[in-house]
Amino acid sequence: MAIETVNPATGQRVRTFEADGTAAIEAKLALAQTAFGDWSRRPVAERAAVVGRAAEILDTERQTFGRLMTLEMGKLIGAAEQEAEKCATGCRYYAQKGEEFLRPELVAESPGGRDEIAFQPLGAVLAVMPWNFPFWQVIRFAAPALVAGNVGLLKHASNVPQCALAIEDLFRRAGAPVGVFQTLLIGSDRVGALIADDRVAAVTVTGSEAAGRSIAAAAGGQLKKSVLELGGSDPFLVLGSADLDRAVATAVKARIVNSGQSCIAAKRFIVVDAIYDRFAERFTATMGALTVGDPMDPKTEIGPLATPAILDEVAAQVERSVAAGAKVLTGGRRVAGPGNFYLPTVLANVPPAAPAACQEVFGPVAALFRVADTDGAIALANATHFGLGAAAFTRDRGEAERLARELQAGSVFINGMVASDARFPFGGVKRSGYGRELARFGLHEFVNIKTIRMADLPTDPASRADS
Fold first, then answer.
1. Mean of the pLDDT values across residues 173-197?
2. Predicted local distance difference test score (pLDDT) of residue 465
3. Which of 63, 243, 272, 383 would you label with 349, given CA atoms 20 to 30 Å apart?
4. CATH 3.40.309.10 region(s) of the chain?
């Protein structure tokens, strides 16, 4: 099996890699096991220092890493460099907070003993990662996992092999011992066997609902811990008191982030009747005026979709939605010529069963919905199998508090765009997955939270059994 870099803006093959065979995989598993024995016993401060040096490299080489992301998956060059900077921030966060998050929690203490809760690493964590944020998705697992004393095995998406290898090299250059972080150049057909291997302690996956079901089943069959960050059909609510200028500007940004290829990109725009027409007119005009083109050009606002298959799926979802009764207000078609380009699209009158209403559309396609009032907006926002993020615009404090409580999502942003941040836990409910990344909670997902109770010990330190 060959693993390839194909430029999504041109369709040209850039580089080809041979996939790791059975012998190479075995060697990397053995190396991970050996590395864990050493790495897990090192002081937290030493492990955190490695992750801190990775932050420095990410900052210094953000342009190089950015160009690599753009080349492999078509991310706008400015956004790609910002992703590298965000990765540096995430690494720096765990480098600074690691000792605090891993410090044992004292429950009780007596002259002859103590009761505490300790946080100890599990082993090798297998990460099955997507292409859409090819550095950030990896860093937000790797930084806390490595600081905690685990070692990482990365199975990245097959269309971003150079990013995967660059991240392995990043941690090596930051001072991680050999085997602490390794990339596996393999297809998805190898994942089940890896999960079954006793040297893999846990698995984390960011991807589609289908991928999450498959990996969760495999991990469950082996009684291994898993964390799933899956798809979303995030609602964006605009209520009667909203600042319309701000709501429109944020709505456009929230839909086209990463050319629409984001789990937490807003996808369903739910607007109360009193302002629906004004919002729809301005939102549609702004979406229709966006510049589609070369992602290396700083003036471009919409780049290509990452692969031809993703382009085909987005086009098919729009076609099925229109066939079901949706109306195209702007866009609704591919861009002629080379590359995986799709016009920014706005759909209205979308039936509940149409793909644009009930599926995750991974491209620059927005679905507009008119509701009578706040009750209707909340009900429609929650009428989905997903629950990753939700955004709402209102200037009514009581309404804002209600939305924060009642919207069914892992993150709710009032008067702002949903985004991940190392300081806050990230994850979803319902079919958007389980477990959390980032913050203290993300680090604690892959540790043994151990109860330790010691009593009736001599109070004289010199009375050690080995003295």
1. 98
2. 55
3. 243
4. 235-414
Q: Supply 65's token pair.
A: 């890493």
Tokens of 301: 């606002």
Q: Is residue 284 within 8 Å of residue 255, measured between CB atoms?
A: no
23 exposure class (CB count in 10 Å sphere: 0-12, 13-18, 19+): exposed
| Mean pLDDT along residues 385-414 | 98
Burial class (CB in 10 A: 0-12, 13-18, 19+), 262: buried
Q: Flag whether pLDDT at 268 surpasses 70.
A: yes
Q: 0.90 exceeded by the pTM?
A: yes
Cβ–Cβ under 8 Å, residues 241 and 393: no
Task: Classify domain 2-230+428-452 at the CATH superfamily level.
Answer: Aldehyde Dehydrogenase; Chain A, domain 1 (3.40.605.10)
* CATH 3.40.605.10 intervals, the chain: 2-230+428-452
- Amino acid 462: pLDDT: 63
Under a CB-based contact definition with an 8 Å cutoff, are residues 323 and 356 in contact?
no
pLDDT of residue 63: 98
**Candidate list 209, 263, 437, 445, residue with the active-site label:** 263
Superfamily assignment of 235-414 in CATH? Answer: Aldehyde Dehydrogenase; Chain A, domain 2 (3.40.309.10)
Q: Choose, from 229, 360, 437, 445, the residue flagged as catalytic.
A: 229
67 CB-near residues (< 8 Å, 6+ apart): 77, 80, 296
Catalytic-residue membership of 263: yes
Mean pLDDT across the stretch 154-176? 98
Q: Are 454 and 460 in contact (CB under 8 A)?
A: no
Phi, psi of 195 (to 5 degrees): -60, -35
One-letter amino acid of 141: F
